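Appendix B. Raw example, untouched.
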Amino acid sequence: MQIIQPHYHAIARTAQDYERMAMSGVVAVCEPAFWAGFDRKYPETFIDYFRQIGEFEPTRAADYGIRHFFWVAVNPKEAENTELSREVLKKFPDFFKMPNCLGVGETGLHKSTANEAMLFEEQVSLAIEHDQLILIHTPHLEDKTHGTRRILEILAGLPVDRNRVWIDHAEEHTIRPILDAGYWSGFTLYPITKCSPKRAVDMLEMYGRERILVNSSADWGPSDPFTLQECVCEYRRRGNSLQDAMEIFYNNPVRFLGQNPKFDLPLLKVEEMREEAEAPVEQPAEEPADSA
């Protein structure tokens, strides 16, 4: 089975993770910009970071046959320095031109401050202006309900194409308003602050698979990219077909991310893959024997 890891912080992971992912069916990863664990002081620090995930990480992924795509954003944890953030935003269009840049993400809210909300709106507006996809971070734990509601309020006042917006880190108490508003919703399989594979499958059973993306968001914290494969196994263990699993863990990322033509992976059906695997291999014509 082929899998797409739609939210993965490769800069924080080892080459062995790429190798294990490739061995377990991952064919593409998408790397949003995120917090470095400390607040950056200079615009150039952001620019070099975007270059690293946009230029160097694809070479590491390619060593294992994996396609690598990336996003640019100023994380909401760094939004309080508005002067710095706006200098970084000026450079976004340069990265939008790169062949593997998918859009603006992950932007969003952390503590839902006025500055966070202002910078979130500015980043979304920039994405709209340049016809880019949008990936949104919702707050952790006790701030999630309020932060998700605030994000939906801000988006409601902007001319966004809701089918091109992915609101990530949804949980049981926030998924319904996201889906009801017409956005894509993401489940993040991350210990402590987000969601477990079993809870994700519970939500898939409750809400269906339409406009749902499942990811590990593995980074430098206590996380594991293979929670995604655990989720696939749990989904299949409950009696769902291989094609149903392909729809969630491969085709749904293609449906959303493929709205940017740079993400050119095709939709797949199990039957087509089986036919391709069973097709006879054409043998090269034998050379005539030397009569001399």
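End of appendix B.
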